[in-house]
Design goal:
Layout (H helix, E strand, L loop, with lengths): L31 E10 L5 H21 L10 E7 L2 E7 L2 H7 L5 E12 L2 E2 L7 H5 L20 E6 L13 E6 L12 H10 L10 E6 L5 E3 H17 L6 E5 L1 E4 L2 H12 L3 E5 L10 E2 L7 E6 L20 E4 L3 E4 L7 E5 L1 H19 L4 H11 L1 E2 L11 E2 L6
Parallel strand pairs: 6-8, 6-10, 7-8, 10-12, 12-14, 14-15
Antiparallel strand pairs: 1-3, 1-4, 2-3, 4-9, 4-11, 5-17, 11-13, 16-17, 18-19
Helix pairs in contact: 1-2, 4-7, 7-8
Protein name: Peptidase S8/S53 domain-containing protein
GO cellular component, one term: extracellular region
GO molecular function: serine-type endopeptidase activity
Length: 406
């Protein structure tokens, strides 16, 4: 998946879970990972029933393997387990006979193929940074970043991405490693996307919230990954936030995207209902966002990309658009931290770069104004935004992120 070039899948506001017979619309064929599936159980499935279901899955899987003549290897079919709030699910490798049988079980809510998730950035030539000046000014062309010295102190910013080079000097020792969902992958940022995103969110030089604590969560090895790995990182992150009572001081940034996924929708709803703040990228296909996840979820803050003249970036690699896009921020020619050294910087374009400006704004506002609920800080971001200044919004909300600096 390219950095918000394609991650496909995610949420819906504080609405109830969508009750489906089990099958749902599949992602595009090119995005499907053959033989791998994500299964969500109904919200009222208790712990004992989940365990019983997993045993049933193992039995069905073993029986169907025994019937086959191709000597398919037997292994643990349930490879990933997810559980937070009302969301319970798992991922694994199953043959078609097993999947068809699982769809008939009464406790199963959704069955979806595992699919490719992509980041949303495009590397470009070096140019002076301007995104920080943009977020502290009502008018284009500003050259200074004006902010309160609280700078997100006491907040926690989770970057679900390719990992973060936590030793980079721009993080000033405030970046820590959280979780690695990518099997057989080192606890490092191999692609550079996550480090760049984290730098924009909370770097000392490049960041909006210069005193926030950054937690790196690796779900992608290069520029594409699987939804099941992204779900694993999201599951860990939500549980970490809730178990440490950080709901009013933590934000999740996901500069990732994919085609629409009901399972993602339900996972985001469950996280929102636990009080978790989420900021995501709109994607870079220059296409409508109604079938893009996680942007289509009403629980998230979905961010589009503007150029320095406050015009939505169009054309090839342009910002996605539509009523699901809640706000715009700088995302073109953004300078931030590089994963290649502890002092380096690089330039990237995309909604992946716009999203951490707003995630950083969430942490900045909580550092300035005090801890606040996900709903309250979301409303505050919208309240402060500058209306009517973005051109070529294509039906998106015409609002530009602003930090409230007087």
């Amino acid at each position: 998946m390219r950095f918000f070039t394609r991650f496909t899948a995610l949420v819906t506001a504080a609405a109830p879970f969508v009750a489906l017979a089990a099958p749902v619309a599949a992602p595009p064929t090119d995005d499907i990972i053959p033989g791998r599936y994500i299964i969500q159980l109904k919200p009222d499935t208790d712990i004992a029933a989940v365990a019983a279901h997993h045993n049933k899955v193992r039995s069905i899987h073993a029986r169907n393997l025994a019937r086959r003549s191709d000597n398919a290897p037997a292994g643990e079919p349930v490879e990933r387990e997810y559980g937070f709030g009302d969301f319970k699910g798992y991922a694994g490798s199953f043959d078609e006979a097993t999947i068809e049988e699982l769809k008939t079980l009464p406790e199963v809510l959704v069955v979806e193929p595992d699919f490719i998730v992509r980041t949303s950035a495009i590397v470009s030539q070096a140019n002076p940074p301007w995104g920080l000046a943009s977020i502290s000014s009502r008018t284009p062309g500003a050259t200074s970043y004006v902010y309160d010295n609280s700078a997100g102190q006491g907040t926690f910013s989770y970057v679900i991405d390719t990992g973060v080079r936590i030793t980079h000097q721009d993080f000033g020792g405030r970046a820590i490693w959280g979780f690695n969902a990518v099997r057989n992958s080192p606890d490092t940022d191999e692609g550079g996307h996550g480090t760049h995103v984290a730098g924009t969110l909370g770097g000392t030089t490049f960041g909006v919230a210069k005193k926030t604590t950054i937690i790196g969560v690796k779900v992608i090895g290069g520029s594409t990954g699987s939804a099941s790995d992204v779900f694993a990182g999201f599951d860990w992150t939500v549980n970490d936030i809730v178990s440490k009572n950080r709901q009013n001081t933590a934000v999740i940034n996901m500069s990732l995207g994919s085609t629409a996924s009901t399972t993602w929708d339900n996972a985001l709803t469950a996280a929102w209902n636990k009080g978790v703040s989420m900021v995501v990228a709109a994607g870079n296909e220059n296409q409508p966002t109604f079938d893009r996840s996680p942007c289509r979820s009403p629980e998230v803050i979905c961010v589009g990309n503007v150029q320095s003249n406050n015009r939505r970036l169009g054309g090839g690699g342009g910002s996605n658009y539509g009523p699901e896009v809640d706000i715009f921020a700088a995302g073109t020619l953004i300078v931030s931290a590089s994963h290649l050294s502890d002092t380096g910087s690089t330039v990237k374009n995309g909604t992946s770069m716009a999203s951490p400006h707003v995630a950083g704004l969430v942490s900045y506002l909580r550092g300035l104004e005090g801890p606040s609920t996900a709903a309250a800080v979301k409303a505050r971001v919208y309240q402060l935004g500058t209306p009517g200044v973005v051109t070529d919004t294509m039906g998106s909300v015409n609002l530009l992120a602003y930090n409230g600096n007087k």
